[in-house]
């Protein structure tokens, strides 16, 4: 961006909650074509949200929907990330408010991600379809280092959920707590976990606890992004859905509910849908625009 160019409009939305004080807030720039990497990082850092989304015209060759196809990039306050679910949902809702519900397609650094926006009871809801996921082994020493950084004894893990790295656009280490109390008690060594995550190229650590057959509570430490915890994490939800299917922990065709943000005072709800015969994972949720006060600062 040149010195005299006007600043782009930065919208603020929360994803995975209809309450602006719930879910995960994201910045959205609908026209970032005049911004370079430093500009986008500076805007994301100024906002301080876990990620912000920056839209550009779609690259050539994308299988799109005319003017409903976009390029998209994601920046945390510290770095670019390859894929961010909640910022994708936020961007889709921002576009739908202007052009109406329907299908959208985003060319992300991780691959092409279709999104369908529907209207339910006067509110908009977005469903993204992930890129093809995969699950990776993780060494016992790396799991031990993650537990040491978290301050979790190995005995506090649920033995039915083997630690793995799950990918559905970004890499997440999945660790399952044996109790809700263990999940709620999160006070970790920021620098130590950040170092491990950089070495393993992780976006978050997906901490989970199973409440019932199809209901989970999740938390996502995010030190590599410069924030302690991500309040509602669509990319990790997609990866976790693939993980559950990989180990037969849920039926091949399932609709799962993930609760996140409760321990942070920003409750949100993510719906994860698995379809038989389709490796991709669908993540859906509501959202709303975050208002601003007279100074232009976010109220949420």
Automatic annotation (TrEMBL):
Membrane-crossing segments per the record: none
UniProt keyword list: Isomerase
GO molecular function, one term: isomerase activity
InterPro entries given in the database record: Phenazine_PhzF-like (IPR003719)
Domain of life: Bacteria
GO cellular component: cytoplasm
Active site, renumbered: 51
Family: Belongs to the PhzF family.
NCBIfam families linked: PhzF_family
Name listed for the protein in its UniProt record: PhzF family phenazine biosynthesis protein
Organism this protein belongs to: Streptomyces echinatus
């Amino acid at each position: 961006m040149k010195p005299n160019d006007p600043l782009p409009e930065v919208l603020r939305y929360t994803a995975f909650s209809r309450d602006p004080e719930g879910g995960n807030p994201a910045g959205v720039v609908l026209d970032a074509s005049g911004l370079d990497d430093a500009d986008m990082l500076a805007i994301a850092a100024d906002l301080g949200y876990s990620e912000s989304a920056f839209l550009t015209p779609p690259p050539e060759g994308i299988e799109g929907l005319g003017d409903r196809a976009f390029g998209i990039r994601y920046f945390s306050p510290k770095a670019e990330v390859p894929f961010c679910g909640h910022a994708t949902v936020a961007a889709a809702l921002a576009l739908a408010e202007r052009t109406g519900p329907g299908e959208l397609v985003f060319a992300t650094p991780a691959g092409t991600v279709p999104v369908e926006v529907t209207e339910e009871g006067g509110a908009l809801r977005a469903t993204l379809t992930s890129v093809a996921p995969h699950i990776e082994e993780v060494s016992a020493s790396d799991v031990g280092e993650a537990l040491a950084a978290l301050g979790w004894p190995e005995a506090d893990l649920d033995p039915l959920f083997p630690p793995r790295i799950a990918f559905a656009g970004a890499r997440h280490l999945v660790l399952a707590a044996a109790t809700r109390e263990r999940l709620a008690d999160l006070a970790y060594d920021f620098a130590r976990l950040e170092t491990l995550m950089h070495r393993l190229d992780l976006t978050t650590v997906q901490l989970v606890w199973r409440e019932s057959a199809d209901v989970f509570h999740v938390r996502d430490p995010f030190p590599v992004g410069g924030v302690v915890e991500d309040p509602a994490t669509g990319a990790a939800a997609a990866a976790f859905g693939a993980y559950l299917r990989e180990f037969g922990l849920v039926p091949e065709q399932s609709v799962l509910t993930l609760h996140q943000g409760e321990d942070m005072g920003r409750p949100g709800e993510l719906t994860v849908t698995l379809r038989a015969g389709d490796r991709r994972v669908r993540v859906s949720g509501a959202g709303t625009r975050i208002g601003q006060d007279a100074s232009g600062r976010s109220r949420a």
